[in-house]
Amino acid sequence: MAPGQLRVLYALDVARTQLYHFTATVIAGMGFFTDAYDFFAISLVTDLIGYKYYLYQGEVHIPRSVSAAISVIALCGAVPGQLVFGWLGDKMGRKRIYGVTLILMVVTSLASGLSFSKRVGKNVVAVLCFFRFWLGAGIGGDYPLSATIMSEYANKRRRGALIATVFAMQGFGNLAAGIVGMVVAAFFMKSDPSSHADFAWRIVLMFGAVPASLTYYWRMKMPETARYTVLVAKDAKKAASDMSSVLNVNIAPEDEAVNQLTRQGQYGLFSAEFLRRHGVHLLATSVCWLAVDITFYSLNLFMPYIFTRVGLLPTLKKGDNPFKLMIDIAKLHTTIAICGTLPGYFATVALVDRIGRLRIQILGFTMMSVFIICLAAPYDQHWTKPKNKYGFAVMYGMTIFFANFGPNTTTLIIPAEIFPARLRSTCHGIAGAFGKIGAIIGVFAFRYTEDHVPRTLFGLVGCNIVGILFTLLLPETKGKSLEEIAGEIEEQQPQQHADAAASAEHVQVVPV
């Protein structure tokens, strides 16, 4: 037990990995499952929306501004969602705000599929964008809360793997989007596209409400994290009671130690002390997240367009069945998820607590750059030839693999570990908001330079290099307690150090 560490937090750090951890992982992970489904399902149905509302003389002509708005509006909502709900998570508790974001996601997923207007066409798309903005706000709020809750529940030996497992549910959400898209398109395959395309895209979007609603009850049954209850709410009895029941250990409350913590002057976000201790950390986590999301979201949201350019997907022409194209896009989406996305997440889960967060992040940025260069350099001379299209798909899949076995996962883990409990959700939300700003930049940059794919890909390489440089400013968090990483133990008085060390024997825990 580290000097100055409270018994209840020590119990969490050394507890064996048990059913409680796996239950929390699944419950928190379903938020990311829903996030990924809602973010990436839109790329599967954009052509159907165009077929319904932008069909002129038998051909689809979606204006670039409309296509970009449909793709990016949820990301725009995620930025204020991460900032506001992240801040509220520190002010009002992780659990309470967790439920609010979930309800918002369920309601707006259903509303997105019920986007109607008396005047069809642009008005329907405008209503859809309105509801997807608020859907994005709920998704954005889920990021800091899910990551913070899991980091504060986890033991220190397997904390990285548990947070990565929560985030890996995003891969299954990505996979689910492809499967649902194929099933819905197959169901309507033999129907009249002009009358049924409207039903198909609405069903796909509304399905996002299902996984979120199924987990609401279990989310509300989870106790507030002990670290919030002790270090922010200052309720030692409740924290000891909650953790004693879920960890099956006897933990005595430490009212005196918590009272001493309350009397200490604790720095705020906009203080010189925070700037000295964590200013560089907040800058580095924000820039790294911005850099990786420019690459990750542009490649994922514009996958159908990229693969159309190299001949792996057909272009929707006059007389074509849009449901057939939707099945082709969903098949490719599912294949990439199975061969690239999920293996990348699994590799991070297996290795993040062995080789460390920073090594994985640097490796991921580096290998993404290598494979993107392999895509961009010979693009016009090599990949546009029909016989080479499958090689392009392999290179693309490896880029996605190293995004997930790399910065796409570690940029979520690190901000959930390195900031103090009273600011953890807020700072995670700030870093995540920069990530979604990066995603918005990537989407607009790709949409308005789509005729120059190699140039855009080389720009993504530059983003990865920036990510590597800022990763070097971050501390390694592997195997350390959250209080040690954030410097919260240092803030306690010398007498607390002696009292906590003397009382460690009262904690009955089973080490991992």
From TrEMBL:
Keywords: Membrane, Phosphate transport, Symport, Transmembrane, Transmembrane helix, Transport. It is a multi-pass membrane protein. The chain crosses the membrane at residues 20-45, 65-85, 97-117, 123-141, 162-187, 199-218, 282-307, 332-353, 360-379, 391-414, 426-445, 457-474. GO terms for molecular function: symporter activity. It is found in: Membrane. Residues 24-479 form the Major facilitator superfamily (MFS) profile domain. One of its GO terms (biological process) is phosphate ion transport. GO terms for cellular component: membrane. Belongs to the major facilitator superfamily. Phosphate:H(+) symporter (TC 2.A.1.9) family. This is H(+)/Pi cotransporter. It comes from Urochloa decumbens.
